[in-house]
Design brief:
single chain; alpha/beta; 7 helices; 14 strands; globular; Uridine phosphorylase; Nucleoside_phosphorylase_sf
Length: about 290
């Protein structure tokens, strides 16, 4: 039995941080970072059956063209992803009354819709990126046993190419779900490696008043290649989503609207339009493919 200190439930029986019960979520889930973006997606739904929010975790479940979908905000960073995916998995794969894992496990389909900055000059603002791999620079996933799901050869190649300081922890690489990749794939998508940082400023090479450990890291990442895969963009969630989903048996895919290009120093003139177009595209694919 899983102890109450390990799987914390609220007095109403919902999981602690997300404030959700099993019946509140669909098996197809869209992640967004910003809580205000949840309704930018659910405004297209035919109906909404459930809505709740606790802290930065806002959830709405409803119907879009006969498809039941949950949209959830995760907030920022790998630490929040650790909370969200573990608690979602508990909702479908642990009996919350007996506190025992279920014999028959359920796989969720998780698609992240986010915004990001491109590291490559030829991936312009307002384009879309599909993350073939998540490259975790954050070290969160190293708390788990990940060798069976990680791409160790790519990890080692990245460490060598960047002269990575292992005092920061060894980066990890996890592939996306092939099932969701095939479902969402189109000519509109750039593909590559999405790097996931544990912070926004120093961990992503931004310098304000503090010097950083490796001021050349971004330029090293720009020209890293492994088996024709290059690093396309840098953000704060994808690798953690891929890693925990792979370990727990869920399907995960990360899609980003590119609103900035770090190589050219440009920013989208209308970032909201790019995000709205990615939302419409993803909903259409979800509704038509099942």
């Amino acid at each position: 039995m899983i102890q109450s200190s390990e799987l914390i439930l609220n007095p109403d029986g919902s999981v602690y941080h997300l404030n959700l019960k099993p019946e509140h979520i669909a098996h197809d889930i869209i992640f967004v970072g910003d809580q205000n973006r949840v309704e930018k997606i659910t405004q297209f739904f035919d109906s909404i059956e459930f809505s709740t929010q606790k802290r930065e975790f806002k959830t709405q479940t409803g119907i879009f063209k006969d498809k039941r979908i949950t949209v959830m905000s995760t907030g920022i960073g790998p630490d929040n992803i650790d909370i969200v995916i573990n608690e979602l998995d508990a909702l479908v794969n642990i009996d919350l009354e007996t506190r025992q894992p279920k014999e028959k496990l359920t796989s969720l389909n998780i698609i992240r819709i986010g915004t990001s900055g491109s590291l490559q000059a030829d991936i312009p603002v307002d384009s879309f990126v599909m993350s073939k791999f998540g490259l975790g620079l954050d070290n969160m996933l190293r708390s788990y046993l990940i060798d069976e799901v990680s791409n160790i050869k790519m990890e080692d190649a990245f460490v060598k190419h960047t002269s990575w300081d292992l005092r920061k922890g060894k980066p990890y690489v996890i592939a996306c779900s092939e099932k969701l990749e095939k479902m969402i794939e189109s000519d509109k998508m750039h593909k590559g490696i999405t790097a996931t940082a544990g912070g926004f400023y120093g961990p992503q090479g931004r310098v304000l008043r503090l010097n950083i450990q490796d001021e050349d890291l971004n330029s090293k990442m720009d020209n890293f290649k492994f088996e024709d895969n290059r690093i396309t963009n840098l953000e704060m969630e994808t690798a953690a989503i891929y890693g925990l989903s792979a370990l727990l048996g869920h399907n995960a895919l990360s899609l980003n609207a590119i609103i900035a290009n770090r190589a050219s120093g440009t920013f989208s003139e209308d970032p909201y339009k790019a995000v709205d177009e990615l939302i419409a595209y993803t909903l259409k694919k979800l509704a038509n493919q099942y």
